[in-house]
Every structure is written in structure tokens, then in C-alpha cells.
Task: structure prediction
Amino acid sequence: MRDLPRTKHPNLLVGIETSDDAGVYKLNDDLALVQTIDFFTPIVDDPYHFGRIAAANALSDVYAMGGKPLTAMNIVCFPIKQMSKDILKDILRGGLDKVNEAGAVLVGGHSVDDQELKYGLSVTGIVRPDGILTNGGAKVGDQLILTKPVGTGIIATAVKGKLASQEALDELITVASTLNDRASQVMVEYEPHACTDITGFGLGGHLLEMARASEVEISLCAGKIPIMSSARDYALMGLIPAGSYATKNFCEHVVEISPEVESVQLDLIFDPQTSGGLVMSISPDRAETCLERLKGAGILSAAIIGEVTGSHSSGRINIVP
Ligand code: CO
Ligand code: CO
Ligand code: CO
Result:
């Protein structure tokens, strides 16, 4: 889209320029639409769980903007001649269950015959125009809270290689299919300055987007990042998704890495996540209470993982042990 003319409209509150989670369009002074779409190939073999994960992932971008999802539409690519229709039915059932759990309504969708299975949803939500949370707006002194452990990409790679234990697979399914709804509801009460969800660019990549959009320098404490149980072991075995290297190379010039940070920690920081947690930048006097409330709401992995240490015109991240 970089080479195409920019869309400008007085009601367009968040467009594509800042790599934000969703587009936001103002309907009136009290109400704005939040719109997003996401779809991908399966990360687990079980079609029902794949459907749940894909839906939780698509809904997450609305939660990351501080919004409430209202409607959703399926988008499906399916090899109808090669695969049983029951598989498709299970995927759609998983997606529908998650949409219902989110309190949203499935209103339709579109499918095409395709050699490679892909599934996801387009989600529309609402937000108050004065309550929109973007990845810009982080302030010097803010604490950063992450609400889910990282490692889904590494575990999904182990699953693909038939090396994942049943426990690791169960944890992947549990973490990736958890909605970010409660995290978002607790978060908005503490009026964070910025928020995004962690997906394909990994924790490091999405924090860099936040640093750039907010024009700040972020210090990320590698040792404080919550990690899925077996992700570290699989990473040490070299089960690193290809996307991880791409993001690491992309971020290299603007990320300062302390020599004490282990290389396996970097593999986890740049691991592409599917349906990852929210990361919010929140005023230091509210961070501890917000964290306690998140834990009280059952978001047990939530942790303070770093802080905003200064201004920086083009955005910067320091990774420290
Ligand atoms: Co997002
Ligand atoms: Co997205
Ligand atoms: Co159609």
C-alpha cells in the first residue's frame, strides 16, 4: 500500500499509516467503527481448535484498540475436492463458538475453493472516539504490561515437526484460543496510553512499532517476559519459525541488545505469535494495580516486562537481561 495514494477522510481516525491493529472510522462524536480482518493456514491439526484460535486471533485486534466486537464474518479457503466437508464444518464450529463467547454475532462470510486451507474472520466492533487505544501515545515513564506468555510460533513449529509433547500442544491451544476480552476490559479502566496485540512480528517487532508510532525508547527486560512452558526447550533444539529470523533482521538496526541477553531469549522475543496477548503502555502509578486486577481476572501470566525510558524521534528498543 506504500506506493498507493493515502486515503484521507475526515472520519478516518486510524488508517493504515501506523501499522495499527485495526482501522477506526468515526460515525458520530460518541461512536466509531473498528474494523479488522485476519486469516491464516492451520497451526494445529485439530480443525475445531484451529477455528477457535483463528477467531480469537481475529477478534483480538478489536480488543487491542479498546473496542467491543459486534459482528464477524468468516473468510475461508478450502480444498473442497480433497478434504472432507466435516473438517470445514468443525473449523467453522470452532470459530462460531469463539464469536459467541465474545458476545459478537456471526453475520455471514465468503468461501473459495483453494488448494491450501486458510481460515479467519473479518470483525467489526465499536469504540468511543475518545477511548481509542493505538500503538502510538506511549509516554516516558510508562510501564509495559504483557497479558499472555510468548512461544506459540516455536511450539507450532514443534507441532509441525511432530516433536511437540501433548502438554505443549495443550498449552498452545489454551493460550492461543483465549480471548483478549477480559484483558481489554480491565485495561481500559486504567486508561493506558497505548496498546497493541502481539501477533506475526513477535513481541519485539510489535514493541518496535509501538516505539516508532509513539516516538519513544523502550527498555524490554528479557528475564521478565512470560514464556510458555516448553517453548524455551524447543527453541534450544532449534525449532525456530522462519518468520523469527526475518523480524530479527528487520529490527536489527533499531534494537540495542545487551550482551548478557541469551540468544534463546531473542528467539522468544522475535517469535511470531498467533493470537498473542495485549501489550499496554500504562502510567507507572497505575501499573501495579492494573497488573493485580488482571491476575484477579484470571490472566495469570500477565507481567510487567519493561518501560518507556525516553523520547526517540524514530523509535528504539533496548533489550536488557
Ligand atoms: Co494486531
Ligand atoms: Co491483525
Ligand atoms: Co460472496
